[in-house]
Amino acid sequence: TGSGSAEEQIAAQRAFFNYCLIVGRKKQFNLVSTSITGTYTAGTPANLSINVTGGTPPYQYSWTSTLAGTFNPANTASTTFTPAQMSTNQSGTITVTVTDACNRVITQIINASSIGTSLPVRLLDFEAVRNADRVVLNWSTATEVNNDYFTISRSGDGHLFTPVAVLDGAGNSTQIREYSVADLQAPQSDVYYRLSQTDFDGNTEHFHPIVVKASGPAHSLSVFPNPVSRQANVLVKSHLQGVAYIELWNTNGRRVLSRPVVLNTDAEQILLDEIDQIPAGKYILRLSFEGEYIANTVLLKAF
């Protein structure tokens, strides 16, 4: 309990509260000025900055936006905002939040828009197909403006990409153009591919990545029934397309049978009805494509 009359105690409390109010107001901080405008151009960097007074330094800054784009850096008083390169207009907000050492927070939200610009490349399609131990990538463009080259990049997780191929662009073109490249070192696991375009000014545009799923055995042969006496059903599994050959070899290294097979789908079933013409014993059934043996299995001819 304090000394003095009740009136004196009330007066002292009022004086203390007034003191706290004055000190608190001096510690409050405000946004003094900003260089945040409301309209931007897609793909064109813009410098943004903010000034604050009061509060207790150091300050922490955070820049965010509902517009597609990037801030560099996103945690300082001054930053560079680059709206995403796109042909359509977009509207949204830019938000800057400042926090002082006492965790006081002040936020400013500004309505903003980005005016779309013509893209250097109008992409029609982008696809990747696994073919044996490689992945073939194909894409086509409707138009190209100032296009220097394309880059194909590979990733195992869809985030960190490594370039694997570079192809020259057409420069300027209003005709449909088709491109193709093979990744000869493609892993058998799931793999992501990203197509990028770089113009003659050094600006790069990344297109949305695509994924190629993991493959099982690239090619396989299976025989049923096995052992076989008269006729054998052979199931051929392969991602290849074209003419292949099923060959039967004896244990002395002599080919005793050869049959062409057209590979059009992932699985083809072939009937070998000449089995009754060969002696009983153990044979090797092989699948040959373009002069290379890509699969084999054992066939047993019953007595």
First-residue to last-residue Cα separation: 115 Å
Mean pLDDT over the residues: 85
Structural class based on helices, strands and sheet pairing = mainly beta
Beta strand %? over 45%
List the helices and strands and how they pair.
Elements: H1 6-27, E1 29-34, E2 39-41, E3 46-54, E4 60-65, E5 69-72, E6 78-83, E7 90-99, E8 105-115, E9 121-131, E10 134-155, E11 162-173, E12 177-183, E13 191-199, E14 204-206, E15 210-212, E16 219-224, E17 232-238, E18 242-250, E19 255-263, E20 267-272, E21 281-289, E22 292-301
Parallel strand pairs: 2-8
Antiparallel strand pairs: 1-3, 3-6, 4-7, 5-6, 7-8, 9-10, 10-11, 10-12, 10-13, 13-14, 13-15, 16-17, 17-20, 18-19, 18-21, 21-22
Structural account:
The protein is mainly beta and 303 residues long. 7% of the residues lie in helices and 59% in strands. The chain is built from one helix and 22 strands. Strands 9, 10, 11, 12, 13, 14 and 15 form a seven-stranded antiparallel β-sheet that branches. Strands 1-3-6-5 form a four-stranded antiparallel β-sheet. A four-stranded mixed β-sheet has the order 2-8-7-4, with no helix packed on it. The longest helix has 22 residues, at 6-27. The protein is elongated. The model has no long low-confidence stretch (mean pLDDT 85).
Please supply descriptive tags for the structure shown above.
303 residues; mainly beta; seven-stranded antiparallel beta sheet; four-stranded antiparallel beta sheet; elongated
